[in-house]
Amino acid sequence: MSDSLARSREGSKAGRQPRPRVSMDIADIPTYAIGDVHGRLDLLQKAEEAIVRDAEHLPGTKLIVMLGDYIDRGPQSAHVISHLMDPAPEGFERICLAGNHEIVMLDYIDGWASYDDWMTMGAAELLRSYGLDPDHLPLVFRSGAQLDAFIRQSLPHTHIDFIRSLPIMLDTPNVVFVHAGIDPRVPLDEQADDDLAFIRQRFLESPLPLPKLVVHGHTPGDQPDVQPMRLNLDTRAFKSGRLSVARFWQGQVYLFST
Questions:
Q1: Which portions of the chain have biased composition (kind: Basic and acidic residues) (predicted)?
Q2: Does the structure show a pLDDT above 70 at 11?
Q3: 8 Å CB contact between 58 and 93
């Protein structure tokens, strides 16, 4: 992350509205968590098809938890957001959590992050998915302010409103679902939104015990990272073609990928 983007994050914390946090008991609900999508609608659709097949004989309404980072890097950010705004597959509910890429997109829209810093997040692919040319636009507009205003006006307000509405955490009695992780030094009900969406080393390298199983994405790997008290489902879907899923049901965890 660039120094200027880090500074913009510090400044934007004061301006951001706190995100919702959802609490529910999933003991009797077959629950599927899906890792970072990053513009790969094709893989998301394949993952949902696999989930529907897997859940065919499971009882009641099922739940899909999306772990954030739906946009940037891959070719179909706009299509992924449209898909997630539509109803979940029949027989399922869906909770979509906010990822750091969604938060930085809003920071750009709200004037906290610059165009150049936003581009370092893979946002050029996002703009292309909305029919905008990130290579040509800076040549058309004489000032950065004009460029920013055009982009902000061009992105669908319904998509922006959807992204603004995303919760930052799903807390259940035995499992907490977040995008990036938690600060192990802080009680769950006092976690900062910024940590839940951006944290890495203080979470991944901490020797402190975690309060419950933490299911997250954000830190990419070749395979799901299975640890005693955390599970990372980010498997670089935009590049690897592997979108990973975890099913939670009756105290068991089952992993599969596209």
A1: 1-13
A2: no
A3: no
